[in-house]
């Protein structure tokens, strides 16, 4: 009994060895990250204040901060949730995963033998002219059995390497889907705040146009009684129409921004999704900008696009093993067991059993350099995958560094632009008082109105730029997945 168990264990171990085989793939070593150990320091700008950048330790890492926590705006959360369900790019990425999973399952099936059941019959007539008996002969044969067809004994790991490559490709597609999700979250947020900025600029332009229209009418009335000149009337008309052009331009840009947002979301947003709300407040932008950057080495674990590039590198590395195994003999096994009978009724009678065992060894002798070319191709593709992996890391490093530079300067830029707006508003008030007292001309007032309108529009743009740069930093650090 003990000998029987020992024999079964040996056979099981031998079978496992045959199925697993060895691997001729190169030992994988992750390439060193071709970036500096720290992000570049941002030099202080002239006139910079202590509020230029949010403290790096003020928040959680981006990868640990869910998008619902990062974006507190309820309408934006609704849009992002809808986009994650209906965005066509994400849907395509999910289908790519299904495609890669099916390809992996197909490749995995090659590691196990395929067992087929067969049932067939043959009926043939031999004419007397060729019959050994000189008589017409009609014969029948029926066969039934189970068989294994051309199962490769993977001694040199060719099938295993192909299976490893398919698995890595599947994992790469899953990482690519996660990277696509992060991009969709960031792009929806940027499109939403861009639409809100256009709405804010349009509101300012509309208010400016209405105010200038009232001024134009007053100037027109004053001219009719001789209190104003035709030059004053035309100058006011120019400012009024300029504000009208700006309002119409911003209305068009806002409509186009809404269309872009609809495309990202995947379907038309709810009626109130963009009809209300405002740009992010300065406090919200400060909180968004407080994401700590960490170290460049942490990007390898945080960013799905880098992990996807590494999985593609692993797949290319495994394909080298399959190409190397092609130089060695390939052993396949075909076997069958069943029964044969001239009558179907006696197919399973005693004495009708049959079997066949057909091992085959194929040794490559001359292939006109095909195997060598396949190996060279696999090695070149691995080198391409290495370069792609390194470029992905460098791109991620650059994106984070750019966002950090923007974080360092845009806070002061917004503060400076707000100071410009306040100064222009105060200047306009003073000139209006001087004009009413006959000290300043109407042209000075008109010029101050024009400068104030430009400062108001620039402040909205600066605040939008700071918002989108904070979103870029969040995305670049791997946030937006949860």
Order of helices and strands: HHHHEEHHHHHEEHH
Gap between N and C termini: 57 Å
Mean pLDDT: 85
Whole-number total of structural domains: 1
Report the sheet-strand fraction: 5-15%
User: How many E-type strands?
Assistant: 4
User: Which fold name corresponds to the CATH topology?
Assistant: Outer membrane efflux proteins (OEP)
Secondary structure category? alpha+beta
Cα radius of gyration in angstroms: 38 Å
Characterize the largest beta sheet: strand count, sense, and whether it forms a barrel. 4 strands, antiparallel
In the CATH hierarchy, what is the architecture at level 2? Up-down Bundle
Relative helix content: 55-70%
Contiguous runs where pLDDT drops below 50 for at least 5 residues: 1-20, 50-57
Name the shape in a single word. Answer: elongated
> For the largest beta sheet, what order do the strands appear in spatially?
1-2-3-4
DSSP helical segment count: 11
CATH class category: Mainly Alpha
Please characterize this protein's 3D structure.
- This protein is α+β, with helices and mostly antiparallel strands.
- The chain has one domain (49-113, 157-328, 370-476): Outer membrane efflux proteins (OEP), CATH 1.20.1600.
- The chain is 62% helix and 11% strand.
- The protein is built from eleven helices and four strands, in the order ααααββαααααββαα.
- It has helices at residues 2-20, 67-70, 74-86, 88-109, 158-224, 230-265, 282-289, 299-302, 304-325, 370-436, 442-476; strands at residues 115-126, 137-153, 330-341, 353-362.
- It has a four-stranded antiparallel sheet with strand order 1-2-3-4, with no helix packed on it.
- Helix 4 packs antiparallel against helix 5 (158-224), helix 6 (230-265) packs parallel to helix 11 and helix 7 packs parallel to helix 11.
- The longest helix has 67 residues, at 158-224.
- Mean pLDDT is 85; it is low at 1-20 and 50-57.
